[in-house]
Amino acid sequence: MSSRRRRLAIVLVLTALVISAPGAGPGVGVATGSAPALPVGVGNHFIEQLEAPVLASGGSGSITFVFADPMKITLGDSVVTLSVYDFNAYPGNATQGVPGQGGVQLLNGSGDWGPSATVPIHGPIPPNGTQSISIEVQAPGNSPAGTFGIRVQAQVVANGTVYLLQSRGYFSASVWASATTGPNGSSTLNLTRLGVSGVLPETAVLVEPASIALPLYGILGASVALAAVGAYFVWRRGPGSSSASRGGPGASNAERALGKRRTREGD
How many domains are contained in the chain? Predict the structure, then answer.
């Protein structure tokens, strides 16, 4: 089998694993205990510098991150999936499901827009090696104001072993609490209970309220108009204008509100 066909086969297998992985569908993940656990200091460093844009309705931008190899061995072909999974409306600050219409859309590998995007990471990637990734995102014209949560999942191959890593958005509140709460309420992270090899960061796309953007545009327009009026009057008066050379009354002769002249400072 050629290297190109072998790479394609691995990507297809990983894509199938993404589809069948816990929480990869519309719901949230549950613990399965099937993925080999990695040390916490390793498993949470495959995705670095994860950033998402602030968009206006009808606008577009990019979600960017760096895929890194924090392991001491070379990585093979891997897959990263980003998906929109919840919505926090503004105003109101109430977390809810993604709206049926108007939710932000991601550009996937096939050139289609949708709520998720899968990116193949082509190996080999040496230890401490990185790849910069950019995924286009857009907010339809009818997008409501608020934040759209973006969860992240990665299938990483190393020495023939497939590691599954997911962000917080793949787990229900009860599963997450069970895996992160230790004795006497102490904090911990039990990857076996989560059923993953590591926990990744996640991000959110903010769609600005129109009520914020419009006043800013209004102020900007008014500033441009005032600048134009000022320039017009400067041009009309010119440097030799008599109105510009005529001085006003001196400060000591200024009229007071009651009609008397000021006789000293402070009157």
Answer: 2
Examine the domain organization and report whether 50 and 148 are in the same domain: yes
Is residue 204 located within the same domain as residue 238? no
User: What is the percentage of the chain residues whose pLDDT exceeds 70?
Assistant: 66
Are 103 and 230 members of one domain?
Answer: no
- Evaluate whether residue 87 is within a structural domain: yes
Largest CA distance in the chain: 103
**In sequence order, what are the residues at sequence separation of 6 or more whose Cβ sits closer than 8 angstroms to the Cβ of residue 153?**
18, 21, 23, 24, 80, 81, 83, 164, 165, 166, 167, 170, 200
Q: Where are the beta strands (DSSP E) in the chain?
A: 47-51, 54-55, 60-68, 78-89, 95-96, 105-107, 113-114, 116-121, 130-138, 146-158, 161-167, 198-200, 203-207
* Same structural domain, 183 and 54: yes
Cα 130 vs. chain centroid, distance in angstroms? 20
Choice among 8-17, 121-130, 189-198 with the minimum mean pLDDT: 8-17
How far, in Å, CA of 231 to CA of 237, rounded?
Answer: 10
The answer to whether the CB of 96 falls within 8 A of the CB of 87 is yes
Q: Are residues 232 and 110 both part of a single domain?
A: no
Helix locations, the chain, DSSP H = 3-20, 40-43, 173-180, 191-194, 210-237, 242-245
Indicate if the pLDDT at residue 8 is higher than 60: no
Taking residues 185-210, what's their average pLDDT?
94
Residue 8 lies in a domain: yes
pLDDT for res 112: 93
- Full residue range of the structural domain in which residue 232 is found: 219-243
